[in-house]
Amino acid sequence: MAPAHWRHYPPLDLPPILRGALEVFTARGYHGSSVRELATHAGVTVPGLYYHYPSKQAILVALLDACVGELLSRAGAAHDEAAPTPRARFTNIVESIVLTVTHRSALTVLDSELRYLEPESRRHYAAARKQLENLLLGVVRAGHQSRTFDVSSPEDTTRALLGMFQAIVTWYDPAGPLTPPEIATRYRTIALHTVGATEAQR
Amino acid sequence: MAPAHWRHYPPLDLPPILRGALEVFTARGYHGSSVRELATHAGVTVPGLYYHYPSKQAILVALLDACVGELLSRAGAAHDEAAPTPRARFTNIVESIVLTVTHRSALTVLDSELRYLEPESRRHYAAARKQLENLLLGVVRAGHQSRTFDVSSPEDTTRALLGMFQAIVTWYDPAGPLTPPEIATRYRTIALHTVGATEAQR
DNA sequence: CTTTGTTGACTTAACGGTCGCTAAAGTAAC
DNA sequence: GTTACTTTAGCGACCGTTAAGTCAACAAAG
């Protein structure tokens, strides 16, 4: 379950039903996909699908579970591994978020389907996202207080940064010319500018 | 049609059917809304709805038309009104985008439903968004060349900025404490940092 | 060894309900 | 009488879901 290292992204190991569902949900959206499409894409019949999952929504939840946990644990590992300076921690977290968003882009797209979940599940994912926000916010605040960073409001800046990263999936194409590490490098530079720490500083 | 000024946002003047459809689409998503819901929300019957619009998709298109055009024309006006410096143009465009995203948040949320459109309509909106990107990119490039801005890549930075603005709708609440002008002010500061132009400079 | 019972994985067939959409008739204003 | 718009009624297709049966694998009982 736990990856060997937060920078290493093995191919997603999902059961065939979830693998197929991921493709269909990504292409057509949650409400736009029928359980029949999910079933045929996974190579099973419809009741075969219901044997493994109690409902269509449960499939989406299982998929999101695989996503949110990974993002959070990788960002945490990236933070812990960094030298104990705001700058090092910040760049590691940014790199890890951008790597996850790109390497797991199909899963990340599902974030926009989050609001169709029943309230209980939705609260669960809202909490997870808040945890990520707090991780990044802590680092930005530390940099703010030590004057390593130049930000007017750590809270606003953190929220803006996370939005910036999340938006990558709206244009990222795994078949395109840019690789995840390349994008991570570019966004590291941009994010450093956003928190007022120029590349030149060390 | 054209607003008196790009900073002024009168209440949306939409025909009742579109007004109701906007609420329903925003709450449930395109595929999650039925034409029966759209009709009852607008106070008409289903065939009454089909008298005005040929299909469910046409309603979404009409709604998006009202959105994209406004965003583009306001950003253009904000650019033209600014003093002819990259910094003034940049802050005006940023302010105008953030004001539109917040004042017209219900319409902006529909952007995530864009991929469910048939290819022809989707290309139309992709082109409009590209126009906005080019408007902002031109200004960022000008600031880059005149050394007013400090960016490593105007293209990447512009794309990151637009993603940052678009993401506002994921947390913005019209009933919340923050008003659109307040958010615009905060994002102006953040965006200036992102392009490497500190607030202190004039 | 066979027989029998149990489980797990999956099938065929279909349930009631909702989907997007429309034909045809009606109404009110000009 | 024409135009603008609404109504009642319902089309066929598809929706998420389920009941009931099939079939291989395996274990305990004879």
UniProtKB/TrEMBL annotation, chains A, B:
Keyword Signal on entry: no
Entry keyword set: DNA-binding
InterPro entries referenced in this protein's UniProt entry, alphabetically: Homeodomain-like_sf, HTH-type_TetR-like_transc_reg, HTH_TetR, KstR2_TetR_C, Tet_transcr_reg_TetR-rel_C_sf
UniProt GO MF annotations: DNA-binding transcription factor activity; transcription cis-regulatory region binding
Classification via PROSITE patterns: HTH_TETR_2 (PS50977)
UniProt-listed Gene3D superfamilies: Tetracycline Repressor, domain 2
The UniProt record lists the keyword DNA-binding: yes
Domain (HTH tetR-type): residue spans on this chain: 11-71
DNA-binding region extent: 34-53
Stated name of the protein: TetR family transcriptional regulator
Organism: Acrocarpospora macrocephala
